[in-house]
Amino acid sequence: MPTILSLNNENPLKEGRDSFAGLTEKHRAIAENLVSDWHAKISLMGETENSTADSYLVTVKRLLSFTGKAPWMLRKKDVVDFLAFRQNERDGVPLAELTVAAYGSAWRSFQAYMLMQDVANEISVAAGQRPQEFIDDQNCIPVRRAKSDQTPKGWALTPEFIDKIEDELLHMISIAKKRRSKAYYALIRDRVMFHLAIHFALRVSELVTLTLKQFSPHTSPKMREKFGKYGALTVSGKNKVTGTIPMRDEAIYRLLILYVEKVRPKLLLRRSRKEENNGLTSYKGKTYAVADLLFFSERGNVLNPRSFRKRLEELSMAVMTPQKMTPHTLRHTGCTLMAPLYSPDVAQKYMRHKNLATTLHYYHPDPLNAGAHLNPDYDVAGWFEDEEDEDDY
Questions:
Q1: CB 193, CB 307: distance < 8 Å
Q2: Around Cβ 82, how many Cβ atoms within 10 Å?
Q3: Please, are residues 314 and 199 in contact by the beta-carbon 8 Å criterion?
Q4: How many CB atoms lie within 10 A of CB 324?
Q5: How far is the C-alpha of 22 from the C-alpha of 68, rounded, in Å?
Q6: Cα–Cα distance for residue pair 38/234, rounded to 1 Å
């Protein structure tokens, strides 16, 4: 453990403690300027919200206070020791994953600044020592406390349940078609939403606001030939983190094409339109052109997430899933699918998480082979054969 712990047995994380108390006057000045310049960069340059930048500053100073080291002397073991100390403070109870993720975000930001070539060179000249990487994906992963009576907040669908839900959706669509029900196209839309939510591990807010413009050809010529302009989906979601996720399943691609070419145009024509809206709709303060949206409600608005939630609850009851299925269940399932296919850092990028620890929370190893199990024997093309007078649906 750090030497500072032996100084009068004082708590190294005591509020108000001087983070640079153990440094020489020269190193103290260098360290203070370094931390100050980093904080100014991330706050004044708009890299983070001011409140986030201030929180980052406190977190970095806590690590420095704990170690008693100059910033450029931090090493990976210091992070491990800090987390162990915090756990001991809690009588051995591991820190919450979100807490560790918040620590990691702050430390990674500071590390990235110190390791910038010009900054690292300046530190090397002024302090005679070059900074090193002190935090990575391995030394900043929390250990979750196991409780036999605790139900995990997130869970992923198994292949069997994905199959059952797919079959139930196809059954509902078939009945709606025979009855010439108005729910027919909405059910097809919800089926596509179900599979895209899993395939791209989307948040429900990202799913209901998807636009056609977010799809683009893949950078690989082979993938461009295979999936055309739908080879990749770029999503900018929570915390303004953007990721581009590749299309990887031909069945999903065919389903999307079917929806875009056959179903979506009919939904566009049948939506209730208000002249004063001028083809626009708003969601969470942002305005969208309905014609750009991939999915939308029958009234021509961004689809209310509650509507999709109700559909999932209906399906969950029909196939008797072990827990209530929510849109977040689909995101957990999507992450579980990605993890075996890609390296952890790639899965983190596709999930649009700032920290690997968060991505690991979404990974459930039990349903490893879960997938978008579309029914290959179901003749979806037949849905649109011999359809006359469909405007009555």
A1: no
A2: 23
A3: no
A4: 12
A5: 6
A6: 30
φ and ψ at residue 365, rounded to 5 degrees? -70, -15
As a whole number of angstroms, the distance between CA 355 and CA 108 comes to 9
Calpha distance 146→329 (Å, rounded): 21
Contact between residue 76 and residue 135 where contact means Cβ atoms under 8 Å apart: yes
Residue 347 to residue 106: CA distance in whole angstroms:
21
Residue 233 forms beta bridges with which residues? Answer: 215, 245
Lowest mean pLDDT among 107-111, 274-278, 320-324: 274-278
Residues 205, 262, 166, 373, CA torsion sign? negative
Tokens at 206, concatenated: 């990202």
DSSP string, 166-229: HHHHHHHHHHHHHTT-THHHHHHHHHHHHHHHHHTT--HHHHHT-BGGGEE--SSHHHHHHHGG
Mean pLDDT is lowest, of 8-17, 25-34, 98-107, 317-326, for 8-17
Domain regions of the chain by residue span:
3-127, 159-392
What are the two backbone dihedrals, phi and then psi, of residue 289, each rounded to the nearest 5 degrees?
Answer: -85, 125
**String of DSSP letters for 322-355:** SS---HHHHHHHHHHHHTTTS-HHHHHHHHT-S-
Q: What is the pLDDT of residues 181-233, one digit of tens each?
A: 999 999 999 999 999 999 999 999 999 999 999 999 999 999 999 999 999 99
326-355 CB burial, b ≥16 within 10 A, e <16: bbbbbbbbbbbbbbeeeeeeebbbbbbbbb
Burial pattern 90-121, b for ≥16 Cβ within 10 A else e, equals: eeeebbebeebbbbbbbbbbbbebbeeeebbe
Q: Which CATH number fits domain 159-392: 2.30.110.10, 3.40.50.2300, 3.40.630.10, 1.10.443.10?
A: 1.10.443.10
Rounded-to-integer distance, Cα 351 and Cα 193, Å: 17
